[in-house]
Amino acid sequence: MEEEHMPRRELESIHGIPLYWCFVEKWGQVEAFQARPDDLLISTYPKSGTTWISEIVDMIYNDGDVEKCKRDAIFNRVPFMEMSAPNFINGTEQLDKMPSPRLVKTHVPVQLLPVSFWEKDCKMIYVARNAKDVAVSYYYFYQMAKLHPDPGPWNEFLEKFMAGNVAYGSWYDHVKGWWEKAKDYRILFLYYEDMKEDPKREVQKVIQFLGKDLKEEVVNKILHHTSFQEMKKNPSVNYETMPSWALDHSISPFMRKGISGDWKNHFTVAQNERFNRHYEEQMKGSALRFRMEI
Ligand code: A3P
Which among 184, 252, 192 is positioned nearest to 56, based on CA atoms? Predict the structure, then answer.
């Protein structure tokens, strides 16, 4: 795929979920994807800390060996299952060729996950992040990642986000859907805000979930290597190795701020009030609770 072939295009739809045209084109491969029992699925709504948890898990799999984790870019170590762009990357094909145990990244809402993951009872880690920070992070990502349609001004983008008219659809449905599934399947449900507040506690949860036993010094190494400051300067995770026609870091770096509560620098008082009312309606009846800052 070359630059002239990557003009911004409107989202298409797959089973009612807005998504990039080139993913939709190859959706048959996603539906037919064969999970293996020892796959670990990393699932998130976009901009919720996917890259962060992916690097943590790869570090755990490699017993804290930093050099091993620099062997390749994160999108090759943890392939993005539904990713497909002509002559560029195809996630399912990457995964089919990959030896076990595989780490698999996805952003699909629960109803779009290939059935083989449920049939094989794969372990899964879901990371959820508060909606306001996700909306802000997504706004910058829309601008720098050319796969997206033009986000327009912030106010318009925020309306689209609330209406679920963004890639991968409604944040509300996504988090509620995965939260419900976590009651019946082997899903570790984590929050970005908890990871910010106490990364050691959360990394230890992951280690335990994966059935590993790592020495304290290895855990500390993992924490250092996966801190925002370290990841921001690490080309194997900061996406700078992606061609600029796909991701334009001069517009906004992929490793942007890495904090909780940045929404306060973007939401007006009126936007916040409107968002809160809509949020209440959408989350009514759910036991899911998010912290909007820490
Ligand atoms: P911001 O845009 O708010 O800075 P994803 O990997 O799901 O696309 O999520 C990207 C978001 O996670 C970005 O948020 C990015 O800065 C943040 N992030 C990435 N690595 C991080 C880390 N080690 N610690 C905290 N936040 C991180």
Answer: 192
